[in-house]
Amino acid sequence: MIESLHGVRFSDEVRAALKAKTPIVALESTIISHGLPRPENLHVAIEVEAIVREHGATPATIAVIDGQAHIGLNPTDLEVIATREDIAKASIRDLAIFMAKGASAATTVSATAHLACLAGISVFATGGLGGVHRGAQESFDESADLTALSQLDITVVCAGVKSILDVAATLERLETLAIGVVGFRTLHFPGFYLTDSGFTLEHRVENAGEIAAIIASRSVIKTNGSALIVANPVAKEMNRALHDQILASGLARASTESIIGKAVTPFLLEHFHTQSNGESIRVNVDIIKSNAALAADIAVAASR
Ligand code: PSU
Ligand code: MN
């Protein structure tokens, strides 16, 4: 029984929901620890969980705290990952290492999706997926989010991939890795801060029920070995000129300051937040909330 796995802890509400087989939505914690400034990050984490509940599902925010993988955080745990100084960033490969060391870490999309699947949770809301970085031909910088999602049966609601990435290359990789992508009420693949990354999708869905039907078909014909991405554009995008200008200066700064590895994404997000006078934070928060609501609707529809 997964609920008694050594080193894995469940919040009371998640344990109860798993037992009762009621809808659950996994939420990542890197967004909280490394994607948003303090103290707003904690308020957002609390609000996002409330939105999931309002939409009829149980939130399972996932993180590693003091060596324990947590599926579902109580209010004290949430505060820990939002405020403590020693919270690392765990990709899937880091999970066991941080756990064995008794360390604490926020989980990225790859690590969150892995732990969610382990727990039997199949719907997940995040902000923007990781993907192929610009210049990856040289740097080989491609997020482990992609390879992880190629091996997990999970539906991920996101606002596309961050515009800091090479969107075209990321879409090609998603195709190669057999990760399905549907646009929610759009055929324009969103670019996180922007509603349209400039790339077109093949599939569009109108409501949670249609997504639940796709999830059901995937399991019938067993194409559920890899993830399904629901690309949900933000309602009100960031000012485009401002966006393009900040992106250019951020990429230039990252290069001059030789920012590499897992530091790249938090560095660029932080650059956006400071340079846009809070506009990117507003958009980022809208994205997470709207994705959490849609993910809960999907979890509810899929449980019928
Ligand atoms: N989206 C956000 N904020 C974030 C991230 C995504 O709005 O902080 C995080 C996610 O956890 C994602 C990670 O999995 O960035 C990707 O990091 P990397 O590019 O290092 O793989
Ligand atoms: Mn990377």
TrEMBL record:
Pfam families, sorted: Indigoidine_A
Record keyword Transport present: no
Membrane-spanning intervals of the chain: none
Keyword Glycoprotein among UniProt keywords: no
GO molecular function, one term: hydrolase activity, acting on glycosyl bonds
Keyword terms, alphabetized: Glycosidase, Hydrolase, Lyase, Manganese, Metal-binding
GO cellular component, one term: cytoplasm
Gene3D superfamilies linked: Indigoidine synthase domain
HAMAP family per UniProt: PsiMP_glycosidase
Protein name: Unannotated protein
Upper lineage: unclassified sequences, metagenomes, ecological metagenomes
